[in-house]
Specification:
heterodimer; A: mainly alpha; elongated; B: alpha+beta; Nuclear Transport Factor 2, Chain: A; five-stranded antiparallel β-sheet; 6 helices; 5 strands; globular
Chain lengths: ~220, ~140
């Protein structure tokens, strides 16, 4: 048990703080929602009902879609794009999908390699792109949920203010949808870009996200 | 409260499923009671059952009506001389709000613990502005 906890501490800790933050968001969002309800002379809603509201769903989904977009783009971008001196970048001469030997696929697979890395054909191709495919699928799925839940929440506010609700396609080109979307995207892209650049010159001893403390600034792709 | 909670759970079930029909309808079937309440309000008005009609008004709407008229709701509502709005032509809804469009009127409904209430009635659209409503909270 102790070994399990130690060997999986990264996912367990981040899974735990994710759940904690989600619960905290639920309570804070519920309070804010009801505050708005009171301001509109409408009735407050119980916590359980807020959890199943379009307002909560939109607030959760708009954050999830941007996180998965961030990682999707980063996973794909780092195949071809380079950053001299950054541990986030591949070595400058290794841009691209690399050779089968480098990627240990087909006849170059090792004894412990996943079966789909060895078998070749469509399965190897799918497995070779599985990380970005799944991340992109989650991104598009959560963005779709944001669009529908955000549409419902937007229309609820529209009618509270005695204005006409919009259809879903009209909402997709509305400033509310793009404001929610882009405010999340800008922060994600900034974080990734910052990480790529700051890690050139700054260090965190012991972290695989950092170069070794004594690694020269100009060395690219060296993890800690 | 329990019935309200059940309705809201069903309402969100429309969100992740996303067939095209639900996208187009915006799950308005869940706001059908709002349509019924709006029609009930105007039925009471046309029958001059002012007490009954006042029961359909949201608390703040009723309060504002009485305050601006300087009289109790039944008399204040009668003095508004609301005309027949015609048949319901369209229902739009989201969350705790609904818009019921009659042929000659638009009514905004809000969901409270004890059912759907008229938040604003006798509403006229204005370009790029909120509706101008004769009765509102």
């Amino acid at each position: 048990m102790r070994k399990f906890l130690r060997d999986n501490s990264l996912s367990l800790v981040f899974g735990g703080i994710f759940l904690g933050a989600l619960v905290g968001q639920a309570f804070a969002g519920w309070a804010a929602f009801n505050s708005n309800q009171v301001g509109q002379n409408l009735s407050q809603v119980p916590f359980g009902e807020y959890l199943t509201s379009s307002s909560f769903a939109a607030d959760v989904a708009e954050n999830w879609q941007s996180e998965y977009l961030q990682f999707s783009l980063y996973i794909l971008a780092t195949v071809w794009l380079l950053q001299r001196g950054s541990p986030e970048s591949k070595a400058l001469e290794e841009a691209g999908l690399e050779s089968d030997e480098q990627q240990k696929v087909g006849r170059f697979a090792e004894s412990g390699s996943p079966a789909w890395a060895r078998v070749g054909g469509a399965r190897t191709t799918i497995f070779s792109w599985s990380l970005s495919l799944v991340m992109l699928a989650i991104f598009f799925g959560s963005w779709l949920v944001q669009s529908v839940a955000g549409w419902a929440a937007f229309n609820e506010e529209q009618m509270q203010q005695m204005q006409d609700p919009l259809g879903w396609t009209a909402y997709l080109v509305n400033s509310d949808f793009w404001s929610r979307t882009l405010q999340n995207w800008q922060s994600e892209f900034l974080a990734v870009g910052s990480m790529a650049v700051l890690s050139i010159y700054l260090r965190q001893r012991g972290s695989p996200e950092s170069k070794p403390v004594g690694e020269p600034h100009g060395n690219t792709g060296a993890g800690g | 409260m329990h019935e309200l909670g059940r309705r809201r759970v069903v309402r969100l079930a429309c969100v992740p499923l996303l067939p095209a029909a639900l996208l187009l309808t915006g799950c308005t079937s869940l706001q059908q009671p709002a349509r019924t309440a709006a029609a009930g309000f105007y039925a009471a008005v046309s029958a001059s059952r002012w007490d009954r009609a006042c029961g359909y008004l949201a608390p703040e709407t009723r309060s504002q009506l009485e305050q601006s008229a300087g009289s109790a709701c039944p008399k204040a509502l009668a003095d508004e001389k609301l005309s027949d709005p015609g048949p319901v032509q369209k229902l739009s809804g989201a969350g705790t709000m609904a818009q019921v469009r009659f042929r000659q009127d638009t009514v905004f409904m809000a969901e409270f613990r004890h059912g759907w209430k008229v938040m604003a009635a006798d509403c006229t659209p204005r370009p790029d502005k909120p509706y101008d409503c004769q009765i509102q909270g």
